[in-house]
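Title: Prediction job returns without error message
Component: structure pipeline
Severity: low
Priority: P3
Assignee: unassigned

Description:
Job completed but the reporter wants confirmation the result is attached to the right record. Sequence as submitted:
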Amino acid sequence: MNPQLEDIVESLHSMPTIMSATQELDILQRLRHCDDEASIGGLDLLPEILSVIEESHSGGAIFEVNDSNYSLFLAAADWLERLSNQCLRSQHRAMISGVAATLRTRFK
């Protein structure tokens, strides 16, 4: 197992179900530091991490998306799409793409 991903999961367990936009961006940034197929795309922890982010974002943090942080969510969504294209597991590809779509959503 990847210790960085395990640390992210541990952090998620201590956070509220609906995180702030800032907390989500922090988790996404930490996740991006694990960016390669061997350490992220092929591991079973990825769906757990992404499902928590997706639930949090659609559950409340989406309303905190504004002009100052929207570009950060778009960048994270773009990164997730690139990761999805690299991912060998088809069920991970679908989930990653779904989370990317959720992060692109913005209410004005």
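Comment from assignee: result matches the submitted record. The chain is about 70% helix and 0% strand.
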